Amino acid sequence: EIVLTQSPATLSLSPGERATLSCRASQSVSNSLGWYQQKPGQAPRLLIYETSKRATGIPARFSGSGSGTDFTLTISSLEPEDFALYYCQQRSNWPWTFGQGTKVEIK
Amino acid sequence: QVHLQESGPGLVKPSGTLSLTCAVSGDSISSPNWWSWVRQSPGKDLELIGEAYSLGSPNYNPSLKSRVTISLDKSKNQFYLKLTSVTAADTAVYFCARGYSDSEFFFDKWGPGTLVTVSS
Prior knowledge:
The structure holds 2 protein chains of 2 kinds.
Chain A: E1 4-7, E2 10-13, E3 19-25, E4 33-38, E5 45-49, E6 53-54, E7 62-67, E8 70-75, E9 85-90, E10 97-98, E11 102-106
Parallel strand pairs in A: 2-11
Antiparallel strand pairs in A: 1-3, 3-8, 4-5, 4-9, 5-6, 7-8, 9-10, 9-11
Chain B: E1 3-7, E2 11-12, E3 18-25, E4 34-40, E5 46-53, E6 59-60, E7 68-73, E8 78-83, E9 92-99, E10 107-110, E11 114-118
Parallel strand pairs in B: 2-11
Antiparallel strand pairs in B: 1-3, 3-8, 4-5, 4-9, 5-6, 7-8, 9-10, 9-11
């Protein structure tokens, strides 16, 4: 099973700042990686799929990059509603797996 | 608009069977999408349980395969999860989700989730 390791565990930033979240895979997942946002008491919400494609309705401040084993989610300028948990997920090798999450909190 | 909604008992006894239903509206489970179950433990880890497709056999996470059944009911536009021989380790929020063909089968729609506690 592919293990996804996210870093940092917690990111403390202020609104308007840039957020850079990392996801590293234990083996190559090609470009089959996605990102989700989750707020307390809610289901995850798809932000990015296939490394860099924004899901329907996702603002342009969210972008994804990377390939193989190293991936990045960037939020160019944090809005108050962006403070949440973020997970990466791979769809390259069964079973699909998720990272352990990065919490973006208000500094 | 596509909506998914989980339902089922919130409390299951140890060694019993966990049974959940996901009602789908706004899309047909006969469409070329994957219909999945994901759970999230109190410690927040997300774990894929398995997925089913209308034209093929379901896929199960090897870690749960011996205990899991996912099935589709096209007449009711619902799909189901059965997990047998449950223990406290199966206590989690259970989500149903759609793996959407237009988003390369990543999970674009989710139900709100239902908490299932395993306890006597």
